Amino acid sequence: MTKKIFARLGVISVSLLCFTVEVKAATEFFYTSSPQSWVGAGQTVTVTPLNGFSFTPSRNFDNGVSFSINDFNTNPNFWEQRWWYLDFSAPFDAPLAVGIYQGATRWPFQAATEPGLDFSGNGRGNNTLTGSYNVLEVAYGASGAVESFAADFIQYDEGFQSWWNVGSIRFNSDVPITGVPEPSAPLLLSFGVAAVVAIARRRKLAELVAELGSERGNFQMKACSEAGLLGQWSKIPHSDPEGRKGPGSTFFFPTLFSLYVMRA
Q1: 14-31 exposure pattern, b = at least 16 Cβ within 10 A, e = fewer
Q2: What is the pTM (predicted TM-score) of this model?
Q3: pLDDT tens across 11-49, in order?
Q4: Using CB atoms within 10 A of its CB, is residue 164 exposed (0-12), middle (13-18) or buried (19+)?
Q5: Residue range 136-166, pLDDT digits in tens
Q6: Are 225 and 151 a contacting pair, CB within 8 Å?
Q7: Phi, psi of 194 (to 5 degrees)
Q8: Among 40, 53, 171, 205, fewest CB within 10 Å belongs to which?
Q9: Which helix (H) or strand (E) segment is 175 a member of?
C-alpha cells in the first residue's frame, strides 16, 4: 500500500514538473509613444502573428539585428496596411549580444563608438535620434541567422526628449513583455542633454537654416507651419525592402520646421 502511494506521488510530481517547465516561446511587438512623437504619433500598439503580422529578422551589415514587421500578406486593403522596422547594432560592428546599450544614435549613421538604433514605420522616420536599448536575449544559428531575440528600447525622435517612443520586441522568446513605464523626468532630462550635444555635433543650426535656400523657400515653410502642415514640406523618397511604394512610403522630417519656428 505504501509503495503504491509513493508511486502515485512520484507520477504526480513528474507531471507537475513537466507542466511548470513547459513555456511557449512568443513573438510580439509592442510600443507606446508620446503625443509629440513623430514616429509613434501618440499611439500604443501591440501586434503578434495571431493578428496577422509577419516578423522577419535579419542580420544587418553592422553585425546587428533588424526586424521587418508587417501585415502585407493578411491585409487586402493596401491603404490600411501597417509596417514597422527595427534596427539594433553594437559599437565597433561587434556581434549584437545581451546587454544594455546606452547613447544610441540613428542606425546606420551612428559613429563607430556608438550603438545604432532605429524604430520607424508607416512612412514615418527620423533624420536624427537618440536613445538606448536592452538586449535581453539573442541566439544565432550556425549560419548566423537570428533564432530568438528579445529587446526593450527607448527612442527620442530627432533627439527631442518629449518625442519619446518606448517599445519591446520578442521573437521566439521566453522573455515576457512586462509593463514598460513612460520615461521619467530625470531620464528625459539626461537624454535631452545628450540629444543637444549629438545634434549640435552633426550639423550646426546655421547650416540647417542656410540649406533652406531662398526667401521663397522660407516663405513656403512658414506658410506650411501656419497651415498646420509641419513635416510635409521637406521629404525624402523612400521605399521599403519589398520595393513597395504607396501611402506612407515617404519619410517626412519635421526638424527643419521646428528649428524655423524656434528662430521666429
Answers
A1: eeeeeeeeeeeebbbbbb
A2: 0.64
A3: 444 343 333 444 468 999 999 999 999 999 999 999 999
A4: buried
A5: 999 999 999 999 999 999 999 999 999 999 9
A6: no
A7: -60, -35
A8: 205
A9: none
